[in-house]
Here is the input.
Amino acid sequence: MNFFRGVMGGQATGPQPTGAETIQKLCDRVASSTLLEDRRDAVRALKSLSKKYRMEVGTQAMDHLIHILQTDRSDSEILGYALDTLYYIICNDEEEEQDENSQKQADDLGIKFTEQFIQDPEHVTLLLSLLEEFDFHVRWPGVKLLTALLKNQGVQVQGVILVSPMGVSRLMDLLADSREVIRNDGLLLLQQLTKGNASIQKIVAFENAFERLLDIISEEGSSDGGIVVEDCLLLLLNLLKNNSSNQNFFKEGSYIQRMKPWFEVGDDNSGWSAQKVTNLHLMLQLVRVMVSPVNSPGATSSCQKSMYQCGLLQQLCTILMATGVPADILTETINTVSEVIRGSQINQDYFASVNAPSNPPRPAIVVLLMSMVNERQPFVLRCAVLYCFQCFLYKNQKGQGEIVATLLPSTIDANSISAGQLLCGGLFSVDSLSNWCAAVALAHALQDNLTQKEQLLRVQLATSLGKPPVSLLQQCTNILSQGSKVQTRVGLLMLLCTWISNCPIAVTHFLHNQENVPFLTAQISENLGEDERLVQGLCALLLGICICYNDNSLENYTREKLKQLIEKRIGKENFVEKLCFINKHELYSRAAQKPQPVFPSPEQMLFDHEFTKLVKDLEGVITKTVHKSSEEEKKEEEVKKTLEQHDNIVTQYKELIREQDSQLQELKEQVATLSSQNEQMQTTVTQQLAQIQQHKDQYNILKLKIGKDNQSQSGSQGDGSQVNGLQTEELTQLKEELEELRQQHALLQTQLADKDAIVNTLVRNLCQKKPVTQIMFNCLL
Amino acid sequence: MAYAYLFKYIIIGDTGVGKSCLLLQFTDKRFQPVHDLTIGVEFGARMITIDGKQIKLQIWDTAGQESFRSITRSYYRGAAGALLVYDITRRDTFNHLTTWLEDARQHSNSNMVIMLIGNKSDLESRREVKKEEGEAFAREHGLIFMETSAKTASNVEEAFINTAKEIYEKIQEGVFDINNEANGIKIGPQHPTTNSTLSSSQGGQQAGGGCC
Here is the structure.
C-alpha cells in the first residue's frame, strides 16, 4: 500500500521508478487486489499513463484489463477506465503533429495490439455484450474501442461480429441512443463495420437502417445539417454501393421518394457552407449509386422511373438551372441528371422539355451545350455536359432525330441558337477540346440509328461568301487533312467511323470524294511518330469500314479494289498492326470501363466509351476481311449463294407442302360430303325399291283376282265387263306407275354409279398425294 | 405506394429445397429451373391485399447452406413471419426441420408466425415425405402447413398470403406490438391508428374464414 501511494503521489524516496516498473506494479495490483476500490484506482492510473507509455501499458496490461472487463461487470466506473485504457493503446488517431515515421510506428503499434486483443474472438463478443450496458461511461468508450478495432483489423473483427447472434442488431441500437455523442459515434462505428462487407450491410439494412438514417438526416436539417448528416450519408453510401439487394430494398421501401426534399434549394444559393457542399455532394452520389450504369438494367430503369414519378429528377433539373450554385455541385448535379435519364425514354423526354429561365427561354440542352463548347468553362464541367448529352441520346431515337433535325435545311430555325448550330460551331472552332466534344456528341446522335446517319449526309454548310456550300461530311474530311491537333483529328475520325459504319450510302458519299482514300492510305502507310499512332489506327479503322460496308456502287472503290489497294500500298500485316494501335493505346481500356467521360487532364481526352464498343465489334471483322484472299471471299460468296439457294428450295417445298396440305384438306371434306350424300341416295333407293316391290305384289294379287273373277263370273258378263273395265283402267294406271318407277330406279342407279366413280377417283387421288408428300419430306430431311 | 402495414418475412430451410424459387414465383410469377446458390441473403418484395387493406411484404430469402447459418440467424429477430421449407422428395430435409425450428424459436421474437412448407409437390412420383407427416409435424409444433410447388405455382400465393393473414389476425388481437419495428411490422404512412378497434372485429372474422 505504502509504495503505491508513493508512486501515485510522486513523493517516493530513493530512485524514481521507470515507467515500465510503475506499470508493472499497477498491473500486479489490478491482478491481485481484492478490494474493488484498489483495482479501480490502479486501472485509473494505467489509463492516465496509457498515452505516454502506450507501448508499455499495451504490452503489460492488456490481459489484466480484459480480465477486468470479464469479472468486474458490476462496476461501471472500473469498466469505463479499462475500456478507455484499451482504447488509448489501440487507437491510432490521437497522435497529432507527428512526422510520418513516428505515425507509422504508432499505426504498427495499434495494429499489433488490435491483433493481440482479437486473437481470442471471445474478447470481441465480450465487448459487444458490454455495449448493452446503458451507463454512458461504459457504452461510450466501448463504442470508440470497437470502432478503433474495426479501423485497424476490419475484416477479422467484422467476421467475429457477423457470426455472433444479435451482434449487428445490438450495434444498430446505438442509433436510437438518446445521447447524441453515442449516436454520432455509433454512426462512425457502423461506417467502419459496413465497409466492404455485403453481408453486414444487408443485416444493417434489415435492421431498419435506412429509415433511421433518413430520419436523422431530416431531423438534422438535411443538407443544412452538420457533420452528423455527412456521417449518415457516408453510411448510406456504404450500405448501397455495389449492393443490389440493398438497393432493391431501398427502392421497394419507397426511400427514393424521401431523397427528393434534399434537393430543394432556394433562389439564392450564394454563400453555401463547406459542410452544405459536402452534404449535397454525398446526396448526389447516393442518387447516382441507385441508377449507376453498372447496375442491372432492370434495377436502374425502375429507380429512374420512381425518380421521375416522385419529382426528384425535376428537382435536380431546378438546381441545374438555378443561379449561384457552386461549380463542383453544379458539375455533380449534371452528372447525376445524366444517369437518372440515361436510357429512360420518359426521363429523356422530360429533360428535353426543360427550359432555362432565360429571356427568351432556351432549352436546357442548348444552355448546357453552350458551356461544353466554351473554352472558359472548367474542364470537369464540360465533361459533365458531354456525359449528360450522351445520356440524353442513349437509346433515344426520338432525341437523336430532334438533334439532327436542327441541322437539316428544312427544319432549321435561323432565329434561335440550336443544338445543331452549337455542335457545328464546336466541331470547327479553334479549340481542340471543343472539336473533340462536339464530334463525340454528334457521333452519339448517330449511334445505332441508320436514319440519322443518312439524314446527316444532307447537311450543307455555308463557308465563305460566294463559294458553294460544302457538305458536313466533306468539311470534316477537309479539316482532317489539314493536319490539326491530334485531339481534333481523333474526334473527327471517331465521328466519321461511327457515321459511316453500317451505312453503305454514307460509305459511298465518303468514297465519292477522290481525296479521301489516298489521304487514308498515306496516313496508314507512313512511318510516323508515337503521337500519330492513334490517328493511324483510326485511319485504318475508317478504311476498314469502307471495305466492310461497301455496296460496290463506285467502280473505282469497290470492296475488291480497296482490298487490293491495302495489299499493294500498305501491306496486310502492316494494316492490321496499325489497326491494333487503337486498343493498345494506354487510355483505351480506361474509356472502355464505364460510360462517363472522366479524364485526369484535358490532353488525355481521346477515347469515347461508345466508340470503344464499335472498335470491339469491328476490329475482328475488318482483320478477317483484309486477310481473306479474293478467291476465298468468292468461295464464301458462292457458299453463301448455294446456302441461300438451298434455303430457297426448302422454302419452295415448304410452300408446296403447305398448298398440298390445304388441297388435301379440301378433298377430304369433299369426300365426306359426297359419302354422306351417297348414303342418303342409297336409303332413298332402298325405300323406292321397297315401294316398287309393294306395287308389284299388289299388281300380282290384282292379276290373280282378275283371273278368278273371269272364271267365276263368266255368266254375268255385263257386270263383269264393268268390273273388268274398271280393273283394266286400274291396271293401266298401275302399269304406268310401274313404268315410271322403273325409270326412276334406272336413273338413280346411273346417278349412283356416277357418284361411286367420283368417290373412287377421290380416294385414288388421296392415295397418290400421300406418298408425294412423304417423298418431299424425305428430300428436306 | 401506400400501404396499411408492412410485414417482414424470412424464408429458411435446407439448401436446395426451393426457397429462392418460391420467392421468385411469388414476386415475379416465374420459375427458374436452374438457380444459383444463394449467397448470404437476398431481398424481394410484393404488395398483397388482405381484408381490403394493402399490405407490403418484404421478404428475405436466406442461404440454406450450413456455412451461412450464423449470418442468417441475424434475421430472425426482426421478422414477423417465417416460411420454413422442406423438399417432399428429400427425406433428410424433413428430418432437419427440428433443428431449424429450434434455431428459429431461439433467435426470433416469440410471436413470429411460422408457416411449414413442403415444396416440390409437382414431383409426386419421387415423393419421400407423405403429406400426413408434414401435417402431423405442423400440428405438433403449432405451425400452419401447406404443400406447394414453386414450379407450377400451386399454393405459392396462398402460402405467403395465409402467413400474412395470420400475422394480421395477431395484430387485430393485439398480440403484436405494432409500434416496435423490431418485430418486423410497420404501420403504413397513411394508416389511421385510431380506428384499429373498429376494424379488428371485421378483420378477425374475415381472416379466420380465409385461412386453412
